[in-house]
Design brief:
globular; 167 residues; 0% strand; mainly alpha
């Protein structure tokens, strides 16, 4: 295992121990349906947000590093094992391991970066209804800590900017 791979493994294990951990690498965890709705909500991709939220979309594309997060995986892929690459998908793509989430760059290219729905949740219901209550509007630091755990914060010099670059 490479030193980068070892770091990624330690980061993943640190995340696995938090209450806001990403889904297991071995099992898909569906997005939670709203009460009274048995069907899981699907991810659409950041482009689906652009029509109704043009300023937020423009700011996200221009300022948010996660708007191009899949390029980090591509840049480091040669030095990683397939399992290590898969571990990157939880934080560097949208909805990996969940219904309608990222599968691969070929099958779900619209979800290949960490987009709006990583923080706000799957957008299918909100896009159809246009109701604010059908998506998470107010974000908290806990939303960031799903991926930005202490090991990653230190390694990547993450600064918690809940609205930084996007809103």
């Amino acid at each position: 295992m490479t030193s980068l791979g070892f770091f990624l493994l330690l980061s993943f294990l640190a995340v696995a121990g938090t209450r806001a951990s990403p889904p297991s690498l071995l099992s898909a965890t569906p997005a939670a349906p709203l009460p009274g709705d048995p069907a899981p909500v699907r991810y659409l991709g950041t482009e689906a947000c652009q029509g109704c939220h043009p300023q937020e979309y423009a700011n996200f594309k221009q300022y948010a590093k996660k708007a191009n997060s899949f390029s980090s995986i591509e840049r480091l892929r040669d030095g990683l094992t397939p399992e290590e690459v898969e571990g990157c998908y939880h934080c560097h793509t949208t909805g990996y391991g969940r219904p309608g989430g990222f599968v691969s760059p070929q099958q779900t290219p619209q979800l290949a970066n960490a987009g709006c729905e990583v923080c706000h949740g799957p957008g299918e219901r909100h896009a159809a209804s246009r109701e604010p209550g059908d998506i998470k509007g107010r974000l908290t630091l806990e939303d960031c800590e799903v991926c930005h755990v202490s090991a990653r914060v230190e390694a990547f010099r993450f600064k918690p900017l809940i609205h930084g670059g996007a809103h």
